[in-house]
Amino acid sequence: MATMKAVRYDENGGAEKLYITEVKQPEPGKGQVLLKVYASAVNHVDPMQVAGNYTPPAHVDANLGMEAAGTVVKLGPGCSKWKIGDRVAALLGGGGNAEFVVAHEGHLMSVPGHMTMLEAAGIPEVWLTVYKLLHFAGHVKAGDRVLIHAGGSGTGTAAIQLVRLAGAEAIVTAGTQAKLDMAQELGAVAGFNYKQVDFADKVLEYTQNKGVDMILDCIGSSFWEQNLRSIAVEGTWVVYGLMGGAYVNGPALRGLMRKRLQLVGTNLRPRNDQYKTDLVQAFTENALLHFGKELKPITDSVFPLEEIAIAHRRITSQENIGKIVLSVCEEKQIAD
Ligand SMILES: NC(=O)c1ccc[n+]([C@@H]2O[C@H](COP(=O)([O-])OP(=O)(O)OC[C@H]3O[C@@H](n4cnc5c(N)ncnc54)[C@H](OP(=O)(O)O)[C@@H]3O)[C@@H](O)[C@H]2O)c1
């Protein structure tokens, strides 16, 4: 029986519950490929899952690792899109924090020749999420102003760049000057430290009281009043995270009605295979070719898989700017 190293935990708790163990290698089923993983990444919900505060949807692999980059080493029955040896980045239901993982053949994108596996591993989850927020949920247009919360996060650093690529303007909030500086470097036209100022006052000042056309909101409760003040009439408010809470106590619906807003809630991991396939295809056709030019993956830090606990502590510290990547196996040669 072929085995592999993988991250596991047996009970809920902090990063100290994580360990590496030898488990059976997965077998690709119909329409799936087996990847040899070179790199994977850590996402915001991973420590929440280990703590018992987030439950993955029932139909996905509940093991840690929602993305990975690697090479195709085996094709399941009926696979036609890829061949052995292809360098790919995969959006996964889970299981990527391991030496091998199976992925749906429609959820893979080619890793451009100029990109390392370490860079590629941080792309699928946050870049596909943001592409979906802007183009599937929010329908961004050139000239729009988009307010991005958590501007230094994995999703935030991707969002600034995709907003620019769409010909729109990114305005961010973040909790440290270092994150605001990075946002500006990536092309944000304005940024506000939400811990020091009322960001709605600043957004209105910047937009000469018009407000923003779209908000990418991963905060929820703690920002709702400022969001309502920041958004323009007939704006679109896209909720995709609840880091500041899920409950709203106040006249939120009055504001929604008066400003004739669109409020859109969205997520990615629970979506069905076809939705993810369509998203990967749209991203591949419209965004992937811009890496190495207008777009760049932002990597905060790289840890070997064995240091998974340190990687989890880093993301819960909230000090990361961009993605926390896990190195699983060294890539000896970068193919073109
Ligand atoms: N729905 C989906 O499909 C989907 C997919 C991917 C990610 N997400 C969501 O997107 C969000 C970001 O994920 P990520 O992996 O990119 O995050 P990340 O890299 O871990 O960054 C999160 C940052 O958010 C800021 N933050 C945390 N709590 C906050 C609060 N209460 N108020 C304001 N800012 C807060 C912190 O930065 P500061 O220093 O600026 O405070 C923190 O460093 C999460 O909510 C995640 O669940 C959703």
Describe the structure.
With 336 residues, this protein is an alpha/beta fold. It has 2 domains: 3-123 and 297-327, Medium-chain alcohol dehydrogenases, catalytic domain (Quinone Oxidoreductase, Chain A, domain 1); 127-265, Rossmann fold. Helices cover 28% and strands 26% of the residues. The strands form 3 sheets. Strands 3, 4, 5, 6, 7, 14 and 15 form a 7-stranded mixed sheet that branches. A 6-stranded parallel sheet has the order 10-9-8-11-12-13, with helices on both faces. The chain has a two-stranded antiparallel ribbon with strand order 1-2. Strand 11, helix 7 and strand 12 (231-239) form a beta-alpha-beta unit. Helix 3 packs across helix 4 and helix 6 runs parallel beside helix 7. The protein is globular and about 65 Å long. The protein starts with a strand and ends in a 9-residue tail after the last strand. 48% of the residues are buried. The protein binds NADP nicotinamide-adenine-dinucleotide phosphate. NADP nicotinamide-adenine-dinucleotide phosphate (NAP) binds next to helix 3 and helix 4. GO terms for molecular function: NADPH binding; quinone binding; quinone reductase (NADPH) activity. It holds the Pfam family ADH_N. This is Enoyl reductase (ER) domain-containing protein.
Compile the SSE list and pairings.
Blueprint: E1 3-8, E2 19-24, E3 32-42, H1 45-51, E4 67-75, E5 87-91, E6 100-104, E7 108-110, H2 117-121, H3 124-137, E8 145-148, H4 154-165, E9 169-174, H5 177-185, E10 190-193, H6 199-206, E11 212-217, H7 224-230, E12 231-239, H8 252-258, E13 262-265, H9 273-286, E14 299-304, H10 308-317, E15 323-327
Parallel strand pairs: 8-9, 8-11, 9-10, 11-12, 12-13, 14-15
Antiparallel strand pairs: 1-2, 3-4, 3-6, 3-15, 4-5, 5-7
The structure holds NADP nicotinamide-adenine-dinucleotide phosphate.
Residues 43-45, 125-126, 129, 150, 152-155, 174-176, 179, 194, 218-219, 222, 240-241, 243-244, 267-268, 315, 318, 320 line the site of NADP nicotinamide-adenine-dinucleotide phosphate.
GO molecular function, one term: NADPH binding
Domain Enoyl reductase (ER): 13-326
InterPro entries: ADH-like_C, ADH-like_N, ER, GroES-like_sf, NAD(P)-bd_dom_sf, Quinone_OxRdtase_PIG3
